[in-house]
Amino acid sequence: MNPAQPRGGSYDRERRAGSRAGQSLQWRLILRILIVEDEAAIADAVNVALAADGHACDVVGDGSEALRWSDAYAYDLVILDVVLPGMDGFGVCSALRSRGFAASILMLTALDDIRDRIIGLDRGADDYMPKPFSMGELRARVRALGRRRLEDRTPKIVVGDLELDPASLGVRHSGREIRLTAREFALLELLARHPGQIFGQDRLIEALWNADFAAESNIVEVYIRSLRRKVDDGRRDGLIETVRGSGYRLRAAERN
Questions:
Q1: Cis (ω within 30 of 0) for the bond into 132?
Q2: I want to staple 8 with a disulfide (CB 3.0 to 4.6 A). Which of 55, 182, 205, 212 is the partner?
Q3: CB contact set of 89 (below 8 Å; sequence gap of 6+)
Q4: Distance CA 70, CA 66 (A)
């Protein structure tokens, strides 16, 4: 499936956001977020605010596109406006849940009738925000929904002498504590949850960055190099392996 290109972010914007946020960005949970909003000004403002928190966001403007993008990518959260062209947000929410979409849905609406909020929650929404809304409150609600996602994760991931703690973003290798940025941790966690499995560049970009990152981008190589420097002391024969022509994997622990 090749959905139409959404409005979204860029690597340059991510770097600027990261430098503004400073060290605090390192310990925030990164979410892959789909923003479904037909008002461009609101969509862009939400996109910029969440990108500043380190999240990877895609933006679409109608319900049909939302369903196509949710089929194509594994999102942690959908921020869904109720009033959309074509299929409205209630219909999108119902369709997502009927397809087995298990991630969080946060609905936005200018409708102020309490019955509309009840409909959204009954259709499967996890949270609801009326318009106009405070961007600070929206970011806080996204963080809260992200914490719920953390609760669903395995407490610790152990691959040989590598140990990851998703709750604290802590990493230890051979007893040595390693400090990673949030996106470095997300990349290492993905590899560590599937030791021995090869992940191509396209799949890693889809999982950890937004759709604006072209497959030709070297961003994956940049992050793999950074992980090797921190986890494997820069060695190419360490835990993080490059499979020529295919992608990257974490070496599975040898069995005795």
A1: yes
A2: 212
A3: 36, 63, 80, 81, 82, 83, 107, 108, 109, 120
A4: 6
Tokens 């409150």 correspond to what residue?
Answer: 137
DSSP H/E element including 81:
strand 77-81
Alpha-carbon dihedral sign for residues 107, 110, 112, 116: negative
Query: Which residue segments constitute the domains of the chain, with CATH numbers given?
Result: 7-150 (3.40.50.2300), 157-250 (1.10.10.10)
In a 13 Å sphere around the CA of 137, the CA atoms on its Cβ side amount to 10
Distance CA 94, CA 78 (A): 13
E-strand stretches of 146-253: 157-159, 162-165, 170-173, 176-178, 240-243, 247-250
Distance CA 75, CA 106 (A): 13
pLDDT digits (tens, 9 = 90+) for 101-130: 989 999 998 877 788 888 989 999 999 999
Q: What is the pTM of this model?
A: 0.65
